[in-house]
Amino acid sequence: MENLGGLFNPSSPQMEALAGLTYYTIAISAVILGIIVIAVAYIVIRYRKKPGDDGEPYQDFGNLKIEVVWTIIPVAIVAVLFLLTCSTMRAIDPPPGDREPDLLVIGHQWWWEIRYPASGVMTANEIHIPAGEKLLVRLESIDVIHDFWVPELGRKIDLVPGHPNYMWLVAGEPGVYIGACAEFCGDQHANMLIRVVAETEEEFKKWQEEQLVVPRTPESGIAAEGARLFQTLACMNCHTIRGTAAAARVGPDLTHIADRDTIGAGVLTNTPENLAKWLANPQRYKQGSYMPNMKLSDSEVKSIVAYLEALDEQ
Amino acid sequence: MSSRIPLVPENAAPLPSLKENNGLLAWVASVDHKQIGIMYLIITLVYFLLGGLEALLIRIQLAHPGNDFLTPEMYNQLFTMHGTTMIFFVVMPFLIGVGVYLLPLMIGARDMAFPRLNALSFWLFFFGGILLYYSFFTQSGAPDVGWFAYSPLSEKPFSLNKGPTYWALGLLASGIGSVASGLNNVVTILTMRTPGMTMRRIPLFVWMIFVTSLLLIFVIPIITAAFAMMLLDSLLGATFFTPAHGGSAILWQHFFWGFGHPEVYILILPAFGIISEVIPVFSRKPIYGYEFVAASTVAIGLLSLGVWAHHMFAVGLGNVANAYFSLASMLIAIPTGVKVLNWVATMWGGRINFATPMLFGTAFIIEFVIGGLTGVAIASVPIDWVVTDSYFIVAHFHYAIFGGSVFAIFAGVYYWFPKFTGRMLSETLGKWHFWLTVIGFNMTFFVQHFLGVMGMPRRTYTYHDMPYWGSMNLLSTIGALILGLSAIVFVWNILVSLRNGKPAGDNPWNAWTLEWATTSPPAVENFELVPPVRGRRPLWDLAHPDQPDEPGAKIV
Ligand code: HEM
Ligand SMILES: [Cu+2]
Q1: Which value does ipTM take for this structure?
Q2: Which long-range contacts (C-beta less than 8 Å, at least 24 apart) are formed by B490-496?
Q3: Which end of chain A has fewer beta carbons closer than 10 Å to its terminal beta carbon, N or C?
């Protein structure tokens, strides 16, 4: 059977604690529901009006003792649930203290900006982390409220403009964990996916070094033509490519775009063909996105794709 | 009248009424509580069909991943209008309408305390709805920011759409009407009861409307203030809710949920009231533990005022605040649980007639318990961190407001239709309606619990093809189409029964409360003669003089 995902596949200590509490609560609820369903089913069979039986049944107005008992039982259940709630909450969300965050996640309509303050790495829509390590993440938003949610790794938390939040992020095993924005944030809320790529220590180091490389601008061929178009056709008004004059934050940093899995926060898988389709008309794949249709000709698209792919080939 | 000055002045001029005029004008000009009640019911039925149609379009779009039946803008408008319509223009006004119709009859009064205010409430609701729906015809379209309209998404510069302005104005108008209704209900209940009808003897439905009305009076002003601030922001450039200019994004949420959570109880308490009338009559037994059922209503009303931030566990308010709101929310489970057990105990040992009202009443218990249990679960902060803003929540609140309020509303419609119209609804069509609703409803919403915990966020016009998501969503959509069919059967039943239904007689269910002591439909002044009230079940006492509910009780 294919993996059900989400709560059914807890992949971090926090998610294990959350799943444990959830299963426990579901078990209690199932017992209560079972009792009510059985009682109602019994009543439906046993006390249904029989044909010809027109007398009035015994008129029972209530019983104080019974009422007190069934007030106290839920009190006890609530007490247990509340204690479990508090202990789980403390376990998965301890205060950050004065520690500097390991990771910044910044929400934009409709993509994620990711920064590693210690190393200076900057990327988008894809978080690489070393598996097994507990990272402190600072989350903020530069426009509306978003919400960070990777179901297999733990809690959700809002990205609120003007009110930064912190959370702990850890993945037990290497793997790719897919998440999404969970707070409605406008037209393309549906296409605001986030990927957490948990790697071994070495893989992560290697990835980080690659990200830190400042690519050289290609000097010949269609890639060079692409580089020129990137600067002149206003791509640079919204995007960053390190080592060039492009340094805007309206859209994702493109320095190492070829290295990422998806385009447009999950709308397309990242292949040169899809990149070309996206550049030709992003509104077709992500209607309402802030990346306009640049009305590029086929050859312009080809050159820019060649340029963006070339950035990672050095 | 004694020498005391009456709290409510007698009307100087006779009120215009159904019997004297005919035609549309008689309705438009009416201040008769029964006519106003009926107008509420008709309009809410229209909105129910509109809201249902919107839901079907949403569900068709979600039938498989990557569908492009609707554009994202259209989808966002539809789910916003669906939620807003169902809450503010279906469930709430239905309950207000049925309350306005029944309150005076149940307490033996001739009308509401303030009949003209009653009409004003209705017309504010009516024009509020028109204003909201008019937005569909404007250039920018209907509101598209969700029924909670979170700031700053609902504000400039993120929303250039005028929809949220129509939204705020429409709800502002109908909200003022609701406060007026609340005041009118409270004064009516406190001052217009027939002799002998003490507060300890009023029907439970009246108790629940009483507590609901107090909630309306306390909480609608909160949202009204917030609407005013939102309008100042969007029309005059104030910045209450825009963090970029010193406002607060979270402030809106405190206002919204300070109203919005009690609102949920405004939607469910009168439904509890309906159930507390239907179950005893069809079980042929008095309600089990009247005092507990009434007192638990008051407890729920009070607690509901202090739990709003359980909608904000993901906002980052801190563990201490979260723990408080978690505990307060869980406490609501206690009085609610008491009610459920009392309904079950009322049925126990009865001689139950499973006519359509009772079918819906019985199913209500199960569906509502499912919604209630998931409610307790999400009151637990960590569980909420997992499921909030996911399809689990969509499942949870549909079990509570559809499985709860709407099932109770259906029970109430089948129960009181004979009183309102003088004709019975068809039992055959009623059973079809019931079974289609139960099957369609559970098929639509049960799988959504799983979709939610598997990671499907809500309010997304499309979703990615994750394992099993497509098939579960398809199942949900098929369920919704069955529900659509059930609504057609329901409306059909109303239409044919209005013309050809079996004549009802005064008291077809052999019920006990005062509304059944007059003709069906009731005469203009409600009663020719109000029967004496010596207990909680005046018509039982009349039928069983040898076995009164309160032996020895005198008319006071
Ligand atoms: C045919 C029956 C119904 C179906 C198929 C249905 C379907 C849906 C769906 C799929 C959503 C989620 C939209 C999204 O998150 O993208 C939704 C939201 C909602 N529904 Fe329903 N629904 C039905 C009836 C009702 C009823 C009877 C009520 C209340 C009385 C109701 C109240 C709401 C509310 C308040 C929302 C939230 C809207 C928002 O997120 O802003 N629904 N419904
Ligand atoms: Cu978002």
Answers
A1: 0.95
A2: B490/B410, B490/B433, B491/B45, B491/B49, B492/B429, B493/B425, B493/B426, B493/B429, B493/B430, B493/B433, B494/B45, B494/B413, B494/B417, B494/B425, B496/B426, B496/B429
A3: N
The single-letter code of the amino acid at A221 is G
Q: Which of B82, B147, B153, B346 to mutate to test the interface with A (most CBs of A within 10 A)?
A: B153
Confidence of residue B2 (pLDDT cuts 50, 70, 90): very low
Number of alpha helices (DSSP H) and beta strands (DSSP E) in chain A: 7, 12
Say yes or no: CB of residue B398 within 6 Å of ligand 1. Answer: yes
The Cα–Cα gap between B497 and A31 comes to: 42
Assess whether the C-beta atom of B90 lies below 6 angstroms from ligand 1.
Answer: yes
Mean pLDDT of B43-72: 96
Tell me how far apart the alpha carbons of residues B112 and B8 are, in angstroms, rounded to a whole number: 10
The whole-angstrom distance between B4's CA and the closest CA on chain A is 36
Contacts of residue B71 in chain A, CB cutoff 8 Å? 287
String of DSSP letters for A107-139: EETTEEEEEETTTTEEEESEEEEETT--EEEEE
Tens digits of per-residue pLDDT, B460-471? 999 999 999 999
Cβ(B409)–Cβ(A203) below 8 Å: no
Average pLDDT estimate for B431-453: 97
Query: What length does chain B have?
Result: 556
Mean model confidence pLDDT for chain B: 93
Indicate whether B133 pLDDT > 80. Answer: yes
Let me know: does B448 contact B391? Beta carbons within 8 Å.
yes
Tokens (6 digits) for B256? 């919204």
Q: Are A34 and B338 in contact (CB under 8 A)?
A: no
Place of tokens 């007190």: A68
Q: Is the pLDDT of residue A245 over 80?
A: yes
Taking 50 as the threshold, does the pLDDT of residue B33 lie above it?
yes
Nearest chain A CA: its distance from B143 CA (Å) = 11
Helices (H), B305-355: 319-331, 333-347
Q: What are the strands of the beta sheet with A126-130, ordered from one edge?
A: A126-130, A193-199, A175-181, A146-149, A157-159
Q: What is the pLDDT of residue B553?
A: 67
How confident is the model over A43-92, as pLDDT tens digits? 999 999 988 888 899 999 999 999 999 899 999 999 999 999 999 998 88
Contact criterion met (CB below 8 Å) for B286 and B549 = yes
Q: pLDDT class for B22, splitting at 50, 70, 90? A: low
Q: Say which amino acid occupies B167.
A: W
Mutation target among A35, A42, A60 for the B interface, most CBs of B within 10 A: A60
3 state SS of B73: helix
Q: How far apart are CA B431 and CA B434, in angstroms?
A: 5
Q: B319–A48: do the CB atoms touch at under 8 Å? A: no
Using CA of residue B336, residue B338, residue B342, residue B345, what is the dihedral sign?
positive
Choose the residue to mutate in B86, B154, B390 for probing ligand 1, maximizing ligand atoms within 8 Å of C-beta: B86
Tokens of B44: 């809410």
What pLDDT is attached to residue B484?
Answer: 97
Candidate from B94, B398, B474 with most ligand 1 atoms within 8 A of CB, to mutate: B398
At A165-223, the pLDDT tens digits run 999 999 999 999 999 999 999 999 999 999 999 999 999 999 999 999 999 888 888 99
| DSSP assignment letter at B91 | I
Q: Is B339 exposed, middle or buried (0-12, 13-18, 19+ CB in 10 A)?
A: buried
Q: What is the band of B556 on the pLDDT scale with cuts at 50, 70, 90?
A: very low
Q: pLDDT class for B219, splitting at 50, 70, 90?
A: very high
**Contact: A32, B348; criterion CB under 8 Å:** no
Q: Answer whether B482 contacts ligand 1 (Cβ < 6 A).
A: no
A183 alpha carbon to ligand 2 midpoint, in Å?
A: 5
